[in-house]
Amino acid sequence: MPKLESFGLKRLDSVHYYVRDIERSRHFYVDKMDFAEIGESTPELDQAGKQHSVLFQAGEAKVLVSHPVGEGGRAARWLKKHPAGIGTLNFEVEDIQKAFNVLEARGSTPISDIQTYKDEGGTLSMFSITTPFGDCTFRFFERKGFKEFFPGFKTYAQPKGGKNSLNVLHFDHVTSNFQTMKPALLWMEHVFGMEKFWDVEFHTADVNGKVDKGSGLRSIVMIEKAAKVKFANNEPMRPLFKASQINLFNEDLRGDGVQHVAIEVKDILESVKAMRARGVEFMPTPGSYYELLPTRLEKLGITLHEDMKDLKNLEILVDGEKKGEYMLQIFLKDAAGLYKQPDAGPFFYEIIQRQGGQGFGAGNFRALFESIEREQQKEGRV
Question: Domain containing 228 — which CATH number?
Answer without folding.
Answer: 3.10.180.10
